[in-house]
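To fix ideas, we close by showing one paired sequence and structure record:
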Amino acid sequence: MYFSDNNHFHKALNQILNRYSLTQTELKKINLLSNTQIISIAFTEDGGFDKESGEFCSEVLPDTYKLRIYYLPQDGENKQMLVLVPNEYLFLDSKINKHTSSVLE
């Protein structure tokens, strides 16, 4: 799914969508952004964004995400936050890899 390139944020979002594999649920959430005003997009390779506060954490922890988007809904109410690409998969993978390597040694 791609947004029209008439907006800087939509261009950035298209690039990010090419970088990460998103679930069908995440793609549906992103689709809802096409009718909103995007305020900011932030993504990280290291660390993640807290799912409740949106604050950046430099460590990869469960319940943190690689992508954070702030937007205004169509009704213009308060700013909303959407976080996507959970670190929990990476966190679990690293625990499994550490466990596996210790078992093999």
Observations:
- Strands lie at 37-43, 48-50, 56-57, 64-72, 80-86.
- The longest strand covers residues 64-72.
- The chain is about 35% helix and 25% strand.
